Amino acid sequence: MAQKFLVQVIIENKPYINDPEGETIHRDLVVKGGYSQVKSVRAAKMLKMTVNANSEKDAEKTVQKLCEELRIFNPVVSNCTVKASKA
Amino acid sequence: MKIGIAVFPGSNCDRDVHHVLNNVVGLQADFIWHTKDRISGYDAMIIPGGFAFGDRLRAGIIAAHSPIVQEVKRLAKDGMPVLGICNGFQILVESGLLPGALLMNDSLRFVCRWTKVKVQNNHTPFTQAFSKREEFNIPVAHGEGRYVATPDIVKDLKKKNQVVLQYSHDDPNGSTDLIAAICNEQGNVMGMMPHPERASESIISASGSGEAIGIFRSLASFLEQRAVA
Q1: Four-CA torsion B104, B109, B115, B117, nearest 10 degrees
Q2: How many alpha carbons fall within 13 Å on the CB side of residue B13?
């Protein structure tokens, strides 16, 4: 029976790519703000999709497929992780 | 010779390109709306700068799925010269016609100023009027212009002479190897971040020379030579 799931899609640049946004947040806010125990920040983009599916796994499969098919992320520079939970 | 200029909601350099082609270079250019999925009677296509679809998700990706870009992909495969300028370069990359990606400038700022580029490959339909290593003045105006690709792709681009233009006086955006323009392996598809249509007439050029018109003159001479051959 189909249920509603909330699927979070995180699109993040691959480690070999400089992330000036994350570096600026780290340097100018986090470290200057006194949190020197935080060693790095990487910025990413998150999409939240509400999906009808039979299971969490099904919902993740659908979203993973659409992300690749429709180039929701650029596979040359980004990784994409998909995680479903009950809505 | 007829050139098509693809127009999307959010294109804003289409009229500049149209003006330069029609009134300065003397080629006939027409606007083609993005919903058109069949294009015939055109010798080359230009995808101009702007913010197609408001750069939603990331620059170029929504336009890359449009009917006109599917048609441009087909025409490019048959050898039609295709030039993407700024947002047009982003669209070519997102459509898979060119490799890599264009990310946010390393300064995190929109950069809008004059710079210089050096011609590294003068055997494309868009650079054949220049000599190799010739430098010229040209403006950039972009937020997402940092060209990035895997080290393997970059190595391949260099080996196959696909790096067409490099920034030569400064680094406006943090691009790998100062890449300002690349072409595909066949050389008929080129994407460039700087704006030649804004540097094709002396009256609006910082150097007073309008030498970036060489990009469009190259295309004109390429098409003429091909017509004769």
Answers
A1: -10
A2: 26
Which residue of B lies nearest to A24 if distances are taken between CA atoms? B108
CA distance A82 to A67: 9
Nearest by CB to residue B61, choosing from A20, A24, A71, is: A71
Q: Tell me the shortest Cα–Cα distance from A77 to chain B, in angstroms.
A: 7
This prediction has a pTM of 0.94
B101, B106, B151 ranked by CB distance to A18: nearest: B106
Range of the domain at B179: 2-228
Total domains in the fold of chain B: 1
Q: What's B97's domain CATH number?
A: 3.40.50.880
Q: Looking at CA atoms only, how far is residue B67 from chain A in angstroms? A: 14
User: CB–CB of A20 and B153 under 8 A?
Assistant: no
Which bin fits A77, alpha (ψ -120 to 50), beta or left (φ > 0)?
Answer: alpha
| Tens digits of pLDDT across chain B (229 residues) | 899 999 999 999 999 999 999 999 999 999 999 999 999 999 999 999 999 999 999 999 999 999 999 999 999 999 999 999 999 999 999 999 999 999 999 999 999 999 999 999 999 999 999 999 999 999 999 999 999 999 999 999 999 999 999 999 999 999 999 999 999 999 999 999 999 999 999 999 887 789 999 999 999 999 999 988 7
What gap in Å lies between CA B165 and CA B179, rounded to an integer?
Answer: 6
